[in-house]
Amino acid sequence: MSAGESSTPLAKVAGLGSAREGGEHWLTERVTSIALLLLGVWLVASLLLLPALDQKTLVEWLRGASGAVPMALLVVTAFVHALDGMKVVVDDYVHGEGNRFALNTLLLFAAIGGAALALFAIGRIAFGGAA
Amino acid sequence: MAAHPRPLSPHLTVWRWGPGMAVSILHRITGGGLTVVGLAVLTWWLIAIASGAETYAEFSKAANHPLGLVVLIGLTWAFFQHLLSGIRHLVMDTGAAFELGTNKMFALLTIIGSIVLTAALWAYVLGGRA
Prior knowledge:
The structure holds two protein chains of two kinds.
Chain A: H1 9-14, H2 22-49, H3 55-63, H4 65-93, H5 97-126
Helix pairs in contact in A: 2-4, 4-5
Chain B: H1 19-51, H2 53-64, H3 66-93, H4 100-126
């Protein structure tokens, strides 16, 4: 609860209470989990259905929109969901405001960097840059 | 700051172990593993595909190494465990499956299910994809 009507006067003045952002974070985690349920099953099923797992076959597969688009969606959704989940773990187990901020920032940079690398690779395959 | 150190969640040392508690902590462990190891392998794999047959051969060699296989099988299990306990969480978010018996059974099913799915998938893969 925010420092609303039910709060003590001291809590109101101290600005204690929620930042009113927790609900959104909670919901994002659920929505991305539903998307990942579909995309994860798609990835496993696709890998099992491909005739082989050599580089040539994989390039053929990821060159088409039916491969590249779900893979790009999977990468973005997985990194967002992973970041949301890791934030909960960090907030639960890491003590100290400074440590939490440092670790959450590190995770944010790692997630954005990782997602960018993966998307660049998909783009290179899809737009014909892959050998 | 509070005068007394406040308890932080979840206390692994004070809860009695049971299926629900085990699945809850497994959800976090597999989530962490999928984040750190899973996303790294996924990104490496995509870069290897994009970099050409020679680079991909290096990835393939590492993936087929006994240690690589252990990592991949571990990731498959983590994926299925996290997926199944994730579904369990979504069901519980609706307010259902909190009855002790149902909750315990659902928790056990995610553990059994992830092992069965992992075993079935790798039996199929290592059995030469029939």
